[in-house]
Amino acid sequence: MAITVKQLRAFTAVAEQRNFAAAAQSLHLSQPALSLAIKSLEQQAGGRLLARTTRSFALTPEGEAFYPVARRLVGDWSAALDELQQQFSLRSGTLSIAAMPSFAGNLMPQALADYSRRFPAVRVTLQDVIAEQVVELVSSGRVELGITFLPEQTEPLSDLYIEPLFNDRFIALLPADHPLCQQSQVSGAELAEHNHIALQSPSLVSRLIGEQLSAAGQPFNPSYQSHQLTTIGGMVANGLGVSIVPSFSATQMRQLGCVCLPLVAPAIECTVGVLYRRRAALSSAAGAMLETLCNTFQRRTMPAVTYPQQPLLARQQGERDDPLVQSAAEQFRLF
């Protein structure tokens, strides 16, 4: 039988108070239960820690040597248990997440503000990286949650759970003095007549746009490429060309001086979702963030150009065919 924390608490209480009755009262134990705990500890240790007489007791030399060790062990255990309880109750803790820059800069602050109000003691690290790196960071365990556009083929994500948040319909991005700004909407064919500025390969978003335009019989030969949407917005605003971007970045693009219009023929949509590992239970901090993201975005109608981002209604009604998708409620049952 191993030495228990209860036995160590009993020994340190007796050693500190030098009185069995007072030590028993401080531990909310009867004196026989306290004596039994001390006796069990001595049996495990292999010798006497207390020298008893009919009227008093004292620590043996071995007991004197063991006392500071026992006191430190009890203190470490109490501190560790308190820290664990605080983490479970989200009164402390850390959380690392990754998000594609367009989401991190435009939408993530909304979720972080709500999360911070509810759990102000949790320290959050947000890495804003391209979509492909989001998957890599989650898969490697360097972050617990990742927010990115979801590919149409989910086989490469077989080791990850997918929680869809909303569908985003892409928009056309134009310089303020562009002739197409006079229209109420823009087609892919009209954009193809001008220099195109795109996210740099191997961008999932750029690949999606290229595939959709090609399927509609329209060319996709970017004149400029960049890893960051803000850079693309600046290039468009300065008249270097036109672009196609997620609608949730419209506010940011307007601030850079661009004009945002609905894109038609083809209409391009992509799902934004949260990724997390299948073989690792989420921490309490991550579980609460997942719940916050779902509450913030799954039922949200967002103002953007003339389209709202569409919540995944089928998902809310339980109509799901993708075996990789697991709801937040299902994940919470792991705790």
Describe this structure in words.
The chain is α/β, with parallel strands linked by helices. The protein has 3 domains: 5-88, Orthogonal Bundle (Arc Repressor Mutant, subunit A), CATH 1.10.10; 94-168 and 270-332, Periplasmic binding protein-like II (D-Maltodextrin-Binding Protein, domain 2, 3-Layer(aba) Sandwich); 171-267, Periplasmic binding protein-like II (D-Maltodextrin-Binding Protein, domain 2), CATH 3.40.190. Helix content is 43%, strand content 20%. The chain contains 14 helices and 14 strands. The strands form 4 sheets. The chain has a 6-stranded mixed β-sheet, with helices on both faces. Strand 1 and strand 2 (57-59) form a beta hairpin. Helix 2 crosses helix 3 (31-45). The longest helix is centred in the N-terminal third of the chain and has 28 residues, at 61-88.
What do we call the CATH topology of the largest domain?
D-Maltodextrin-Binding Protein, domain 2
Q: Which percent band covers the strand fraction? A: 15-25%
Q: Specify the CATH architecture of the largest domain.
A: 3-Layer(aba) Sandwich
Number of helices: 14
Calculate the terminal CA-CA distance, rounded to whole Å. Answer: 30 Å
The count of β-strands is: 14
- Rg over CA atoms, rounded to whole Å, is 30 Å
| Main sheet makeup | 6 strands, mixed
* Overall pLDDT: 84
- What overall geometry do the principal axes of the alpha carbons give? rod-shaped
Low-confidence stretches: 306-335
Supply the number of structural domains.
Answer: 3
Structure classification: alpha/beta
Give the CATH class of the largest domain.
Alpha Beta
Name the strands of the widest sheet in spatial order: 4-3-5-13-6-14
Superfamily at the CATH H level of the largest domain?
Periplasmic binding protein-like II
Please write the string of helix (H) and strand (E) elements: HHHEEHEHHEHEEEEHEHEHEHEEHEHH
The percent of residues in helical segments reads 40-55%
